[in-house]
């Protein structure tokens, strides 16, 4: 089963589910949501799933959802910030006036 990214608002995080049956939480991206903005704080992938590209899939899924929801992204998490830097098509999610603060 392909990994799936799911928002868990009650935990303030996106989770990526993987494993043989697709039900194991392989990682998560913590966020803080307020007034049209989503601030990504931390991302973590379980060491059992390291090296499988799940961090990138999690970042893409979370950012795609933020776009659909019309949220501005504040990438405080170094991984998310770096991922946006490598995928400039996502830079527009970060408010223009705040891009320099994040090195974007």
From TrEMBL:
Database matches in Gene3D superfamilies: 3.40.630.30
PROSITE patterns (alphabetical): GNAT_YJDJ
**InterPro entries in the record:** Acyl_CoA_acyltransferase, Gcn5-rel_NAT, GNAT_YJDJ
Q: Which principal EC class is assigned to this enzyme?
A: transferase
Q: Which GO terms describe its molecular function?
A: acyltransferase activity
In terms of superkingdom, the source organism counts as: Bacteria
- Could you list this entry's UniProt keywords, alphabetically sorted: Acyltransferase, Transferase
Instruction: Return the Pfam families for the record.
Output: Acetyltransf_CG
Q: What is its EC number?
A: 2.3.1.-
Location of the N-acetyltransferase domain: 6-95
| Signal peptide range in chain numbering | none
Protein name, as recorded: GNAT family N-acetyltransferase
């Amino acid at each position: 089963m392909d990994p799936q990214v799911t928002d868990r608002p009650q935990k303030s995080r996106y989770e990526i589910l993987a494993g043989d049956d697709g039900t194991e939480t392989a990682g998560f991206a913590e966020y803080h949501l307020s007034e049209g903005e989503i601030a990504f704080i931390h991302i973590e992938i379980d060491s059992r799933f390291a090296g499988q590209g799940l961090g990138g899939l999690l970042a893409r899924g979370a950012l795609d959802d933020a776009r659909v929801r019309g949220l501005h992204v504040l990438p405080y998490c170094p991984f998310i910030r770096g991922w946006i830097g490598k995928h400039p098509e996502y830079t527009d999610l970060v408010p223009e006036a705040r891009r320099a603060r994040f090195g974007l």
